[in-house]
Amino acid sequence: MQGKQLTPEQLGALHDGLVIPAHPLALDHQRKLDPRYQRALTRYYIDSGAGGIAVGVHSTQFEIRNAGIGLYEPVLRLASEEVERAKLNRPFIKVAGLCGPTDQALSEARIAIELGYDAGLLSMGGLGSYSESDLLKRTEQVAELLPVIGFYLQPSVGGRVLSYAFWQAFAEIPNVVAIKIAPFNRYQTLDVVRAVCSSSRRDQIALYTGNDDNIIGDLLTAYRFIIDGAPVEKRIVGGLLGHWAVWTRRAVELLEEVKRVRGEAALTSEWLTRNTEVTDMNAALFDAANRYAGCIAGIHEVLRRQGLLQGIWCLNPKETLSDGQADELTRVSRDYPQRVDDEFVAEHLAKWLED
Could you please report the per-residue DSSP string of 242-284? Predict the structure, then answer.
């Protein structure tokens, strides 16, 4: 394999489990990039203890690629510069969102490599004319350039159902290092995990949750299957999540606590309650009541209230909070204060906003 590879330290951290926020886009009132607040967000994620960031993904708004907007490279560059400026003494993985037809995905992969990114989150969305075989060939080509994190996106927001056989073949592709599982469906989640367990590369692939409706449940579950007559076990070790773009400090603390308790023979039922609390918060954040229409604006609203954004503007003026969503965000922030990191943000905000 001649392409870019993760370092042994990065691979170790990836398999141990990381909080990887899906990085939002900071705009001013004219819907233009606001570099000061864009950099502040990256600094927030770094200081929160996140193990990586994902930039150019859904939370960054796919419109950054549109002609006349052209923000894909500038936004990736700003985040990469901040990570380098931080001079971290821990492994940190910069993930670039890659999407579109094969030529576009390869072009974005080359931009990501030039900007110092470590891996690409490869979306399968918006490619209705591609067969599963076409998607696999596309993945193979991208993986020749840089490590690939696969992405099972839920159909309700542009993804598609992919077969067990697809994920079996996907797991065998060299330089696929992880899969983000986000179908919001337990059956389809099982397809991915079982397919990886049956792969010859199962120990080389880390599983990450994107199932915002079941974050803690995914992180605590040991998935066990009989493969060729023998039990094989695999865990979802971390998350690459839009939900973790807010309240990130609490997400880092949560994952560390999960790492301490998973594997215990008996977990208290309190963890089931925590799972429902996080899901309730996500329903408000992602606007589940309105088929996720306000999912990006919901993230922005939390960050705006904390001072990390100046407004909730999106590149698409039609993307905004749904009726009642702001009240729901107020409710969950009030009802679950232990999941909110307002004090942490207030303590460091001035530093993050420095030029």
Answer: SGGGSSHHHHHHHHHHHHHHTT-S---THHHHHHHHHHHHHHH
Q: Residue 251, Cα to own-chain centre: how many angstroms?
A: 13
Q: How far is CA 274 from CA 40, 49, 214, 269, 335, in A?
A: 29, 21, 10, 9, 12
Per DSSP (E only), the strands in the chain are 19-21, 52-55, 93-98, 119-122, 148-153, 176-182, 206-209, 222-227, 230-241
pLDDT at 26: 98
Classify residue 27 by its DSSP letter.
B
Residues forming beta bridges with residue 122, ordered by sequence position: 98, 150
Read off φ and ψ for residue 226, nearest 5 degrees.
-95, 115
Helices (H) and strands (E) in the chain, counts: 13, 9
pLDDT for 162 equals 94
Distance from C-alpha of 311 to C-alpha of 155, rounded to nearest angstrom: 29
Given this model, what pLDDT does residue 266 score? 77
Rounded CA separation 312/320 (Å): 7
Question: Are the C-beta atoms of residues 96 and 121 closer than 8 Å to each other?
Answer: yes
Please say whether the dihedral angle defined by the alpha carbons of residues 247, 334, 301 and 58, taken in this order, is positive or negative.
positive
**pTM for the full predicted model:** 0.97
At 155, the pLDDT band (50, 70, 90 cuts) reads confident
Q: What is the mean pLDDT of residues 121-125?
A: 94
Nearest residue to 349 via CA among 98, 39, 113: 39
- Phi/psi-derived region of residue 184, left when phi > 0, alpha when psi is between -120 and 50, beta in every other case: left
Instruction: Report residue 148 as tokens.
Output: 């690939």
Task: Say whether 151 sits in a helix, a strand or coil.
Answer: strand
Strand pairing category for 148-153 and 176-182: parallel
| Cβ atoms within 10 Å, residue 133 | 10
Q: The tokens of 85 are what?
A: 């400026």
pLDDT digits (tens, 9 = 90+) for 253-278: 999 999 999 877 678 899 999 999 99
Provide mean pLDDT across the span 20-45: 98
